């Protein structure tokens, strides 16, 4: 993938949906969340017309406080998951992403203060002042990806930067984990 990647949420849409584009503006994928499902069921498509399914993300339970969201490829084979760290996620977004050989990566928000300001004051200034940043790190603390909210007036916009080399499967697992985290955090406010 050609980094940085950009995620653009539609602010006015019946079902949560967004597109992911690369540094050249080429579409990487299109994501749509199904409405009125008891369990989360997110589909990741190659194009906006939703003809080619690439991945799906499904919850293991109805209540999402500590739910595990498993990533499936186009052939319905699981290849990773993301799970919110229940109590640790109340103040600061904190998730675990299943890695290769049971190695877990941590996805966490850098600042609680920026999170609160963005949530409770950001709507006054159109999200131009406070920009939460999320870091994905390996078990040894090495950061591998950064997700940053960007200034935007009529859409939610995020930038994903690659900080360390990864395998293709690890890269996709981290990207799907980032997308699921953004969907969950967006629902929380």
TrEMBL record:
It comes from the Archaea. InterPro entries: LOR, Tubby-like_C. This is LURP-one-related family protein.
């Amino acid at each position: 993938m050609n980094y940085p990647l950009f995620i653009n949420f539609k602010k006015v849409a019946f079902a949560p949906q967004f597109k992911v584009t690369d540094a050249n503006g080429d579409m990487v994928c299109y994501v749509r969340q199904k409405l009125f499902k008891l369990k989360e069921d997110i589909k990741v498509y190659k194009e906006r017309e939703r003809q080619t399914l690439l991945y799906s993300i499904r919850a293991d339970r109805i209540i999402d406080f500590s739910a595990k969201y498993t990533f499936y490829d186009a052939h319905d084979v699981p290849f990773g998951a993301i799970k919110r760290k229940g109590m640790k996620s109340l103040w600061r977004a904190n998730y675990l992403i299943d890695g290769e050989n049971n190695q877990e990566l941590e996805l966490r928000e850098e600042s609680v203060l920026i999170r609160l300001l963005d949530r409770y004051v950001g709507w006054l200034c159109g999200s131009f002042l406070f920009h939460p940043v999320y870091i994905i790190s390996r078990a040894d603390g090495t950061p591998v990806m950064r997700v940053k909210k960007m200034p935007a007036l009529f859409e939610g916009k995020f930038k994903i930067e690659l900080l360390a080399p990864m395998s293709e499967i690890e890269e996709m697992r981290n990207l799907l984990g980032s997308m699921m985290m953004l969907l969950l955090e967006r629902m929380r406010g």
